[in-house]
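quick one, 230 residues, struct below
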Amino acid sequence: MTHTPSILVFDVNETLLDLTTLEPVFEEVFGDPAVMRDWFAQLILYSEALTLSGIYTPFGNLAGGVLRMVGEIRGIAITETDVDALKQHVASMPALPDARPALERLRDAGFRLITLTNSAPGPSPSPLERAGLADIFERAFSVDSVGRYKPAPETYRYVASELGVEMRDMCLIACHVWDTTGAQAAGCAGALVTHSGNAILPVPGVPQPDLVAPDLMTLARMMDDAWARG
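---
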């Protein structure tokens, strides 16, 4: 890489916030906490399908609909109480243990810190505020402003436009390779945090992340060493 990015754009759900804390909802509804992963995979699949189809609905609405769909497939009647319980858990996911120290290290190294999420904005306190991370970030962006989900290129370009910077000035940090791939295809750098449950996609012609780390603190050290702005 000949140009080092100065703006770090973080995905939120699972990258910074602990998605596993949703498992009790799925244990209660389905008797199996592992169904959470099926639901989340379907949620991402259908968010991308809607974007490709030129359709948009807020992420929270889609999350509830996908829960009902998974219930229908598994022969489980999903109630409004179930949907509300899921929404409450999503809104209150805690930060991953190393999130704040990693972000503080990056901020102190001179990087500008931004978030970009598929989740639509809502009333305060936001999930990042509840998780104790909101104060670290300069700006928080949502794809709701463009009506398309990541990894559509418009989502990343929207952030660059709002900040008045070039695409190459930004690095998208996520634990989902579909997100880093989309950002890189749009002209950003990409950094993948595997969190032990994700991996690169080793396919010829597919952009590979510029940096790969098992956790946020390791990634912060790598970025501090390679790209520090201070």
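The CA atoms of residues 181 and 204 lie 13 Å apart.
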